[in-house]
Every structure is written in C-alpha cells, then in structure tokens.
C-alpha cells in the first residue's frame, strides 16, 4: 500500500509536471497579465517519449479562449500567428518560449497575478489530455523561475 500511495503522490504532487501516456511537460510558466479582457501567454517544454504526436488545443478557466500561437517573420518583424497544432516529433520535444511558440489566453476574465497558479489543460491528438499547473511569474519573465529586468520583451510588442 505504501508504494501505491507514494506513486499517487508523485503523479499528483509534482508541481508543474504532468505525464499522460508519453507526454511530459516541464518548466511551465506564465507571465502576469494585469488587464481584464486582455491577453496572456504561457510557455513550457513538452517532451514526447512516444510516437509522433501533436498538441491540438488548450483550455483554461481564466480566459474566454485559449489559442496555440507561433511567431512568424514578416519582413523584419516577428508577428504572432494562430496555428492549428504544434508538432511533437517521435521521442522529441517542443519548446514553447517567448518569441516562439506559445499558449495564448485571449479575453482574460480577471487579472492574472504573479505568484498564482493557472490550471491549463492541453489536448494531444494521441496522448489525450494533460493538465498542467502553470506558475505565474513577472510580466517580463523570459524563463521559468527567472525574470528579465525591465520586461524587455512584452508579449504584445511582437518584437
Ligand atoms: Cu500569442
């Protein structure tokens, strides 16, 4: 019984990590977003330990909609663009990071405060749903657990 309890604790208790089938989400973070009705963005590394898969959607309670976004170069400017899916190669990973692919929250129901946690459900074509607890960091955070002084790259800036 003891080992079962420990296994359950490991499965449920690891903050910021979720494993469903072959999917493992590491180092999720989101930037604090001050405006109700505004947008927010979340980032993470998704490891795929199985056959090729695709992240096809994301859901959260915090906003009216959640989209999968990437950045594409348009002349000298990088712009965000909605994508239908993010590819996960066989035994590969997808890195969602500022300036690249990300999860976009549109129409926030309330300000998202630094220090809080957002429950995000990711749906994969093959692996199914994975719930990730995403810690909220400073508005200019560039990496999990760290912040870029001065919020050098704002998500809205598309720079
Ligand atoms: Cu976006």
From TrEMBL:
<dbReference type="InterPro" id="IPR036182">
    <property type="entry name" value="PCuAC_sf"/>
</dbReference>
<protein>
    <submittedName>
        <fullName>Copper metallochaperone bacterial Cox17-like protein</fullName>
    </submittedName>
</protein>
<dbReference type="Pfam" id="PF04314">
    <property type="entry name" value="PCuAC"/>
</dbReference>
<dbReference type="InterPro" id="IPR007410">
    <property type="entry name" value="LpqE-like"/>
</dbReference>
<dbReference type="InterPro" id="IPR058248">
    <property type="entry name" value="Lxx211020-like"/>
</dbReference>
<feature type="signal peptide">
    <location>
        <begin position="1"/>
        <end position="20"/>
    </location>
</feature>
<keyword id="KW-0732">Signal</keyword>
